[in-house]
Write a structure and sequence with these properties.
By secondary structure, the protein is of the alpha+beta class. The chain has helices at residues 36-50, 103-109, 127-134, 153-156, 176-186, 197-204, 224-231, 237-249, 326-343, and strands at residues 60-66, 72-79, 82-87, 92-94, 139-140, 145-149, 160-162, 192-196, 219-221, 271-275, 280-284, 287-288, 295-297, 303-309.
Length: 361
């Protein structure tokens, strides 16, 4: 898959496409439990522990501990209701996910995906961002979101996507995040996929890693006029859209939206429509502002001593839109940068447990 969408209009004329994805080839794969993330994290964790890294579990990190000079020197946490403080020998790295499951933060910063988190987990509660903000950390792009569109791309490319007025509004072969953003942000979350019988059967026959998005038709009719009536669209609206699409599709072109000729074929014979209203969801992309060395920046623009961050709790490389798999880069590449930067910090006096009265924020 071209998960950056650069193989589709309008980007295909200016950017060389790069095929890539993150569906790993592995034995015993179980998406959601033992998939890409499991395959990546298992050897990383095992290697870290073999090198002497100490892992602590069942901790809920709550706060940062700061010296009088503003340097972050540890974290405050709870374990089964009991307070616990951990001293940082060199620095603290925050890597705690987005705020997609923090309803209050979503409502305040990215209300368009309120109530529809997806592709994230409940631990994405925004705590790392709040911890940074509590000591003056700057944030960026807090309104930016990924918007997934839940329909199999193999069906989408073979049909036409129309809004609540029966009009096409985006090329169907583009990256699904762009489909989701266009639908949720600009079409009131109203979308229908119109497809003919031959195209539906061809698309459904393809292998998929997500069978739950391979949907069945909601309405079926012998022609466009009947389908339009079944869908409750304005008389003539869908008919006009299909007539215009078919006129140019007969020549293998799509001058209106620029869909790749590979997927441009007239809609013939019996037609079906899949109801995709509300089939969107996403996660937040904004977070703590960091520099190229993963140092968390204060609102003044200066790095906060001893504090680093990586992954979805930061404002990473995506803001206006998302390319599938970018979170892996935001976590791995900048996680490595954070570790290197923290290791270069001056070493604090040895000691793990901190006094209960330490200054926490």
């Amino acid at each position: 898959m071209y998960s950056g969408g650069e193989n589709a209009a309008p980007f295909s004329t200016s950017i060389s496409p790069a095929p890539r994805g993150h569906v790993p080839q592995m034995s015993g794969k179980n998406t959601g439990e033992q998939g890409c993330g499991y395959m990546l994290m298992k050897p990383l964790v095992e290697t870290a522990q073999a090198l002497g890294a100490r892992a602590e579990y069942d901790l809920r990190v709550q706060s940062l501990v700061v010296e009088s000079d503003g340097r972050v020197v540890g974290i405050g946490a709870t374990r089964y209701g009991k307070d616990l403080y951990v001293k940082a020998r060199r620095g603290v790295v925050l890597a705690m996910g987005s705020f997609a499951f923090n309803e209050e933060m979503v409502r305040a910063n990215a209300p368009r995906i309120l109530g529809r988190p997806a592709a994230s987990i409940e631990a994405h509660d925004g705590r790392a961002i709040q911890m940074g903000q509590s000591i003056g950390a700057a944030t960026a792009h807090m309104d930016a979101t990924e918007v997934a569109f839940f329909c199999d791309p193999q069906l989408l490319v073979r049909g036409i996507l129309v809004n609540g007025r029966g009009q096409r509004y985006i090329n169907e072969d583009t990256y699904p995040d762009r489909l989701g953003q266009a639908t949720l942000f600009h079409q009131e979350n109203q979308a229908f996929l119109v497809i003919d019988e031959a195209a539906f059967e061809e698309g459904s026959a393809n292998e998929t890693s997500s069978p739950e998005v391979l949907m069945q038709p909601t309405w079926v009719a012998d022609n466009a006029a009947e389908l339009e009536a079944e869908m409750g669209l304005s008389a003539g609206s869908l008919q006009a859209t299909i007539e215009q699409y078919n006129r140019f599709a007969a020549e293998g072109t799509d001058p209106l939206l620029g869909k790749n000729p590979k997927w441009v074929k007239p809609l013939r014979g019996a037609l079906a429509a899949i109801d995709l209203r509300g089939r969107t969801g996403g996660f937040t992309l904004g977070g703590l502002k960091t520099d190229a060395d993963s140092r968390v920046l204060h609102v003044s623009g200066a790095p906060i001593p001893g504090l680093f961050a990586a992954g979805r709790c930061t404002s990473g490389v995506c803001a206006g839109g998302y390319a599938s798999g970018t979170s892996l880069g935001d976590g791995s590449f900048f996680g490595r940068r954070a570790g290197i930067s923290a290791a270069q910090e001056a070493k604090s006096p040895d000691g793990i447990a901190m006094a209960q009265g330490a200054a926490a924020h």
